[in-house]
# Entry
Amino acid sequence: MASTHGAAHVLVASNRGPVTYTLDEETDTLSAKRGGGGLVSGLSAIDPSSGAVWVCSALGDGDREAVRRGVAEPGVRMLDIPADVHHDAYNGVANSTLWFVHHMLYQTPLEPAFDAEFRRQWAAYETYNRAFAEALADEAADGAAVLVQDYHLVLVPRMLRDLRPDLRIGHFSHTPWAPVDYFRMLPDDIAAQVLDGILGADRAAFLTQRWADAFTACCRAVLGPESLSGTRIGVHGLGADADFLRSRAHQADVDDRIALLREQIGTAPEGTPRRTIVRVDRTELSKNIVRGLHAYRQLLDDRPAWRERVVHIAFAYPSRQDLTVYRDYMAEVERVADDINERYGTPDWTPVVLHLKDDFARSLAAYRLADVALVNPIRDGMNLVAKEVPVVSDEGCVLVLSREAGAFEELGDDSVVVNPYDVVGTAAALHEALSLPADERAERGKRLVAAATALPPTQWFLDQLRALEDGR
# Structure
């Protein structure tokens, strides 16, 4: 009897897909924009004959209209999940609950409070995950390999296992994993459901051993010591795509932005180029941008010799601006930067060059100009900026790195390491980084680049796929 299953032998599932659609209301036409990133690079390495399929969600009106019109990129299945269900699942649970738990962001005297409204949103999250599981079950060939991505889809592996026990299922977490005591703020039944959802996979993988260990500790504490018997645990530390970054960083639009940035940076009173402290982040609460600005102000207070001789290039790009707490955070970033410039600035020196509008070419220009890269997250699954800046920097940069970033495991030995909550300590680290002798800076830079590029996106993806295939 012929199989009634789909034809795809490799499948990826993620909230955001590799393409987004925009609807031109005047002409009623759709235009597609292809995205980048590790998953896109990884899938490009798969044999086209495998019939790989990427299952993702329609995120905006253009995406939803594309689904309704039957417009699709080859190898992409976009799900038109009702907008209200997506909102509750994405903003109510994924970004306002699971993200906050894993990044330990709650102000615990006031939050969280898991009330009836949360339970309603959790039901939407279940519906959202079930739509993915059903689509994957429909598209997958017998014995296909399915790689489910991140905290948006933690329930999918168990749901999919129940629908298609023949499949080889992997789940990859791109975030940190919370320690047991923090994870158990979730209601007991929800905590168990999250863990059991991922344990429906043959293999659960993480960016660092620290996050993998935290997950297994949660499983043992919540579900019992035998809960892990059916799932293998893996670690894959995603690295920078050096070839792409170096090529893209030397294109004409980046050169143009370097010229503009150099004009904004200016020269020190003695006529030498000013030093640069660079940060490039989304304005995400966990990135710790505000404390980074406070540390820079502390540097200027503690070390007046750096006044007019250093500029903090801070790119804080919008993130989740549909959530009030994120809009408030972006406003605070802007307020603190303005305060520093007002307090210390001169007619010839702007201490903080702040940009809030996303511009990839400008980010690469800043990477190239970086003397010091400031990467001080409260908590981060990996943090690719920590790996990208050393790869692109023209003269080699010193990395000031939070010990709470996943990248610390690989880059910590050659970085100036900071406690992300310690403003005075971070100011001292910035001074140390700016003062590092050129030969030591160059040697550290070489080792940072080697570590940062050890597992490029294509290999990162294929390693997961091979590990999943080898395990059955």
